[in-house]
Amino acid sequence: MKILHTSDLHIGHSVSGIDRGEEYERFFEWFEGVANEKKPDCVIVAGDVFDVYFPSNEAIRQYYDFLLSLKNKTKKVIIIGGNHDSFKTLKAPKEILKYLDVVVVSGSEDDFCEFVEFDDFVVVAISYLREGILKQYDDDIEKAIFKLYQEKLKEAKEKFPGKKLVTTAHFSVSGASLGDSERDIYVGNLEFVSKDVFEGYDYVALGHIHKPQKITENIIYSGSPLALSFKETYQKNIVFIEDDNVEFINVPKFREFASIKGSFKEVYEKISEMKDAFLEIVLDEIVDSEKLKLLKNGENHIVKITLPYVKEIKNFEVKKVTPEDIIKEIFDEKEIIEAFYEIKKEVEDEFGKVED
């Protein structure tokens, strides 16, 4: 059993409107090289193929080019839908992609599980589970998830006796450490799902959480291969499984996400040493607009500049201004000013003195 596991590609992702297409091209080229070296029986992409429900034509092109690049590098590519994915977008080319040995499980109510057989194991490919799917199993969401995974396990054992059983999931499992930029996700009304639903499976390829980690020795998040925020500073991985051995493979950084703090001089010097990075700058001093322009003239992408708050303002006096002052400032006609005083007197006679 040889599996290359990744997830949360988020193809089409941008940072403050800055396209990341070149990074994705470089990652897919690197991934193709790993697949060529490891020669896995299958590649699993455990959900969130795209960043948005309606990806751009360029994002869809990159998706197809990626799948095409894996032809003859692996026996099958298994794609499951995630919470970011439109099942219609994934499902539309499903039949055509079979000719590229790509199995798509889109996540619609009639397409949320598929068995994919190999020589010594079977993948029970299960997509992100929407509530309509789970209601087919039980009105109680927690029970429904358990029933679904256990029924599919039983069915796989009956159909494919003696083979190892692998499954997929796209949700938060209890005990997982969040990666920072994940969108809040619920399966029905559950924010976290117990790992007990996977009892009996030999390997579980998880998606949704961007930080790579082991929940148990065989229940694993590969994490997202590219950083999706400035807080995702940890090493990115994909996972290679060979029988009972699990290997986390480091993904190169194709573009740096860097938060730089300090004085204008310190920040300026650091920026000059960097190229083609996404930068978040925090200055500890107030600077004028000309200096800010100097920071932006480099070869990097400055996403955000934060200046310090002014905590204290000294020798600041506010002149007391009365309504009469305002009227006199706006109007210079004697009649209007006299009318104002007449109205003011009537109000005071009725309700008491009007304070300035």
UniProtKB/TrEMBL annotation:
One of its GO terms (biological process) is DNA replication. This is Nuclease SbcCD subunit D. The keyword Oxidoreductase does not apply. GO terms for molecular function: 3'-5' exonuclease activity; endonuclease activity. Belongs to the SbcD family. Gene3D superfamilies: 3.60.21.10. It comes from the Bacteria. SbcCD cleaves DNA hairpin structures. These structures can inhibit DNA replication and are intermediates in certain DNA recombination reactions. The complex acts as a 3'->5' double strand exonuclease that can open hairpins. It also has a 5' single-strand endonuclease activity. It comes from Caminibacter pacificus. Heterodimer of SbcC and SbcD. Coiled coil: none annotated. Keywords: DNA recombination, DNA replication, Endonuclease, Exonuclease, Hydrolase, Nuclease. Residues 1-212 form the Calcineurin-like phosphoesterase domain.
